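User: quick one, sequence for these tokens?
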């Protein structure tokens, strides 16, 4: 009997050792990341989330603006050497190509379109940020009649776009700052009002009832087309194109870069080409500054969206993304790498 128990103990110890070996952090390997964004700068960005977040734990070894970034582990990193040997980031990769690369093992972390999130099997590993991306319409300086801007703002059916095109990902909004940062986004009304929109349109001269809308990222073309459809119901004609520099308005995506409300608002204003809001330390002051920026409908906030990433089963540790969207790859390791 004593020998039988010893055999069982040895067997259980072997199982435990095998299990821990599979999940124990290991050094080595290259993490392969694909994103849809194309960073066209001549040099790697030094501030902001994403690629710049790797700078403290990894050292840039190769930079091809708009195409590729490669990093190697920094032995003198503040938190200690990363487990990974290197990170390679491919930019400007369409969502479909990213998905294929993940399936065939050519990528370890890929970005997911909002419409695809619900199709991912529950067994797959997914990392998501808080809703830090703002999708908004921004008017050019040539559109000076506030009636036109307000009519378009009131005609957009955010709920339909959110339910169908975005598959209920993210949050409907009429605010620049997301609710989780400001606490007051719900105070800005986002409901459609076709009666008011039609009244405003009817008061405009006929030539002013037509405008062009440029979609700055091809991913959002379906949203632009739906905006044009909504606008038609209000008596407006919106012609949608992709990356048209002379368009009357642009459908753009920008992101919050801070959890501090005023800093986040200031960053969004800069990205959208709006005046800087007065510096404010209180929620009331930030709210007043945001309300000032939104007066006149020069910008029409539509949705706050998260970044969502699908992760290969061979990636362990993490999550490697913070709620604000910063990358944290220094504690990730790869399965199948020799200890």
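Assistant:
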């Amino acid at each position: 009997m004593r020998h039988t128990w010893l055999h069982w103990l040895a067997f259980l110890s072997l199982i435990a050792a095998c299990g821990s070996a599979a999940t124990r952090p290991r050094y080595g390997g290259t993490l392969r990341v694909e994103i849809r964004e194309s960073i066209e700068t001549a040099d790697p960005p030094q501030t902001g989330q994403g690629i710049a977040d790797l700078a403290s734990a990894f050292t840039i070894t190769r930079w091809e603006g708009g195409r590729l970034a490669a990093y190697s582990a920094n032995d003198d990193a503040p938190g200690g050497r990363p487990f990974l040997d290197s990170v390679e980031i491919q930019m400007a990769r369409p969502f479909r190509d990213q998905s294929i690369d993940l399936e065939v093992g050519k990528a370890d972390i890929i970005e997911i379109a909002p419409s695809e999130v619900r199709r991912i099997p529950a067994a797959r590993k997914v990392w998501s940020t808080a809703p830090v991306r703002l999708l908004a319409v921004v008017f050019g300086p040539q559109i000076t009649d506030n009636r036109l801007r307000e009519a378009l703002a009131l005609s957009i059916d955010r709920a339909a776009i959110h339910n169908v095109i975005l598959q209920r990902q993210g949050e409907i909004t009429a605010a620049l700052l997301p609710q989780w940062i400001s606490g007051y986004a719900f105070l800005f009304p986002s409901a459609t009002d076709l009666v008011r929109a039609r009244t405003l349109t009817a008061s405009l001269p006929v030539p002013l009832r037509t405008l062009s809308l440029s979609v700055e990222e091809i991913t959002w073309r379906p949203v632009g087309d739906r905006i044009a459809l909504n606008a038609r119901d209000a008596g407006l004609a919106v012609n949608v194109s992709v990356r048209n520099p002379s368009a009357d308005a642009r459908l753009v995506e920008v992101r919050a870069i801070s959890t501090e409300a005023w800093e986040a608002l200031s960053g969004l204003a800069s990205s959208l080409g709006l005046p800087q809001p007065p510096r404010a330390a209180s929620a009331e002051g930030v709210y007043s500054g945001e309300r000032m920026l939104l007066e006149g409908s020069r910008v029409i906030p539509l949705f706050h969206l998260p970044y969502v990433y699908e992760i290969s089963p061979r990636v362990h540790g993490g999550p490697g993304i913070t709620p604000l969207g910063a990358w944290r790859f220094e504690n990730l390791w790869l399965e199948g790498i020799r200890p």
